[in-house]
Design goal:
The chain has about 230 residues and is of the alpha+beta class. The protein is built from four helices and eleven strands. Bound molecules: zinc ion (2 copies). One zinc ion binds next to loops.
């Protein structure tokens, strides 16, 4: 029988030995001190880390606030520290540290080197590099270099060369105008990142993508052909 626990970190339904070890592995991988949390440690702390009610919020200094019924603590995943008594007295990896590591692995909160950003196309929250400025796209609207895309305005096929973090109203073309300034881009967000692409028809045998003329588009003007 499978019993699904209604907790954010419970990707696996039961605290089975396999799940315990994977949680321990991910924790060990994301912290530097490896003296505890080994295979011989009692399982109940891992089980509590996975199932107890906790609210985790990333702070601006790459640490995390963990709110529980028993108190509110601050976890530094990189340093492997927590402000709770369990960690302070025993120096052990407490359930808060474990839970934060699990949530990061599950993609529920940003990793210490990430922060929460907003997709310029749909407004969905997305994790971006901590120091990244500019404008960003979620996984659904991201385009990978090399991807074949279709221009919504002309129907033409293009090959993505680069996704910048520069806004369409800041990115200057060779003509000295911003991408947002072109009438054909009026229907797309001026705050969207500019995607650089070359026309597929200009890529011929013996001619690399780097040799083709490159054009900048607001991200949502280019769409995957299947969309
Ligand atoms: Zn703790
Ligand atoms: Zn999006």
């Amino acid at each position: 029988m499978t019993h699904i626990r209604n907790t954010p970190a419970s990707a696996a339904p039961e605290p089975s030995p396999a799940r315990e070890s994977s949680a321990t592995v991910s924790l060990a991988a994301s912290t530097s001190s490896g003296e505890s949390g080994g295979p011989g440690e009692p399982d109940d702390r891992s089980a509590r880390a996975a199932t107890e009610e906790m609210t985790i919020r990333p702070l601006r200094d790459r640490r995390y606030v963990v709110e529980t019924d028993g108190g509110t603590y601050v976890v530094a995943l990189d340093a492997g520290t927590c402000t709770c008594p369990d960690h302070a007295i025993r120096g052990s990896r407490c359930k808060h540290l474990r839970r934060v590591a699990m949530e990061v692995t599950a993609g529920a909160v940003p990793a210490p080197d990430e922060r929460v950003g907003v997709c310029a196309v749909c407004g969905a929250e997305t994790f971006v590099p901590f120091d990244a400025g500019g404008t960003h796209l979620c996984d659904r609207h991201a385009l990978e270099p090399g991807a074949i895309v279709r221009d919504r305005e002309t129907g033409k096929r293009l090959v993505v060369v680069a996704v910048t973090t520069e806004r369409a109203d800041a990115y200057r073309t060779d003509e000295g105008r911003s991408v947002a300034d072109y009438p054909t881009n009026a229907d797309y967000g001026a705050h969207e990142p500019v995607v650089e692409a070359v026309y597929a028809e200009s890529v011929r045998p013996g001619r690399s993508v780097a040799d083709c003329d490159r054009y900048g588009f607001p991200a949502s003007r280019l769409t995957r052909p299947s969309d």
